[in-house]
């Protein structure tokens, strides 16, 4: 059975940022200033680096609520979910930990595994096909025969150039795997794929080209677009139509939308299923969607509550699954969290 399912899990949290300027200093274990440390909000275009004295400053106009990442080669990364400026951080050298290697022969070539990685990570859409991984040699693979699972990892950030959307993206590959129903790399036996990353987007400076049209195309019909429309109660044949089973339905019957801390708290109404445990109940609610009267998808909620920000980004990413057309969008179609269509 072929299941097209991709869960994108970023380190995505909600925190209140009141100040319009965030600054601080980054030093090493000897309290010496570190030059060139990356400071960025995960999944956005908002970031900077430290100067020769270890100082940095970020001036903010608007931002989605996301984790602040402090990253430097050879040192452990810092993830801040709550922020109080000034930020003074002492980084610790990263300990060298050898990856656990499964001592079994891999029957697939590196070329075959890279092809799978590109398809399942970047995608096979226009966005995915127009992405180039600038340092592919940094990607390593393992294959677990018992689980029919291909895994990929990298000891350094991988750099992705998206020539379709106009971004250079620095990606910290936290986790990646593709699971199959038998020992193969064929999509005919694909069971599912998963990746977890932190990322920082930089604009490609091409004065002769506008990427706005492509970015809008990637946004339309995406999960970000769906949740933006959900909080704005925007439905219709040229937008999204929500289905309960095979029947079109009113979203107000299934979702309660509340204001909470400048966010939208979404409460999913409806059914529960019981697991094998007599004392445990697990929330499960699924809907079908039709976008622009042609793109069919399915959304499964395994949580009864989640948040959506003004940009359409949602929490509980590991508990909201997509399949169908909406799930075909991979990292190659991913826009910054702070992206708004023009």
Structure commentary:
The protein has 342 residues and is mostly beta strands. The chain is 10% helix and 38% strand. It contains four helices and 24 strands. It has helices at residues 110-122, 126-129, 212-219, 223-232; strands spanning 6-10, 21-27, 38-41, 47-49, 55-59, 68-71, 78-80, 87-90, 131-133, 139-144, 149-154, 158-162, 167-180, 190-203, 240-244, 247-248, 255-260, 263-268, 272-274, 281-283, 285-291, 295-301, 305-308, 320-324. The strands form six sheets. Strands 1, 9, 10, 11, 12, 13 and 14 form a seven-stranded mixed β-sheet that branches. Strands 16-15-21-22-24 form a five-stranded antiparallel β-sheet. A hairpin with a 4-residue loop joins strand 12 (158-162) and strand 13. The longest helix has 13 residues, at 110-122. It is globular. The two termini are 40 Å apart. Mean pLDDT is 86; it is low at 1-19.
List its traits.
single chain, 342 residues, mainly beta, seven-stranded mixed beta sheet, five-stranded antiparallel beta sheet, 24 strands, 38% strand, globular, disordered N terminus
- Helix residue percentage: 10-25%
Strand content: 35-45%
Dominant shape: globular
* Unreliable spans: 1-19
Alpha-beta content class: mainly beta
Query: Mind summarizing the main beta sheet?
Result: 7 strands, mixed
- Our measurement of the CA-to-CA distance between the termini, rounded to an integer number of angstroms, reads 40 Å
Order of helices and strands: EEEEEEEEHHEEEEEEHHEEEEEEEEEE
Radius of gyration: 21 Å
């Amino acid at each position: 059975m072929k299941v097209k399912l991709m869960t994108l899990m970023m380190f995505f949290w909600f925190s209140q940022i009141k100040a319009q300027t965030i600054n601080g200093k980054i030093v090493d274990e000897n309290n010496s200033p570190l030059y060139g440390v990356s400071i960025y909000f995960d999944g956005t275009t908002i970031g900077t680096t430290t100067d020769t004295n270890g100082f940095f400053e970020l001036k903010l106009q608007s931002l989605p609520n996301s984790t602040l990442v402090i990253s430097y080669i050879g040192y452990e990364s810092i993830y801040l979910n709550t922020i109080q400026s000034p930020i003074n951080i002492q980084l610790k050298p990263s300990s060298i930990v050898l990856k656990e290697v499964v001592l079994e022969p891999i029957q697939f070539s590196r070329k075959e595994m890279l092809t799978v990685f590109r398809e399942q990570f970047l995608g096979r859409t226009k966005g995915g096909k127009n992405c180039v991984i600038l340092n592919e040699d940094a990607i390593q693979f393992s294959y677990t025969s018992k689980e029919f699972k291909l895994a990929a990892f990298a000891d350094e950030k991988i750099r992705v150039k998206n020539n379709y959307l106009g971004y250079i993206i620095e990606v910290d590959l936290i986790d990646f795997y593709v699971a199959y129903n038998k020992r193969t790399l064929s999509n005919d036996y694909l069971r599912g794929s998963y990746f977890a990353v932190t990322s920082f987007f930089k604009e490609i400076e091409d004065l002769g080209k506008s990427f706005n049209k492509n970015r809008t195309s990637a946004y339309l019909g995406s999960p970000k677009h769906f949740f933006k429309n959900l909080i704005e109660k925007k439905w219709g044949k040229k937008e999204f139509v929500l289905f309960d089973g095979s029947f079109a339905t009113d979203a107000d019957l299934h979702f309660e939308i509340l204001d909470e801390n400048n966010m939208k708290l979404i409460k999913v109404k409806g059914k529960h299923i019981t697991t094998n445990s007599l004392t445990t109940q697990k929330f499960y609610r699924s809907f079908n969607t039709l976008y622009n009267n042609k793109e069919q998808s399915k959304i499964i909620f395994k949580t009864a509550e989640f948040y959506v920000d003004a940009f359409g980004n949602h929490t509980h990413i590991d508990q909201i699954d997509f399949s169908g057309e909406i799930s075909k969008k991979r990292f190659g179609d991913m826009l910054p969290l702070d992206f708004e269509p023009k």
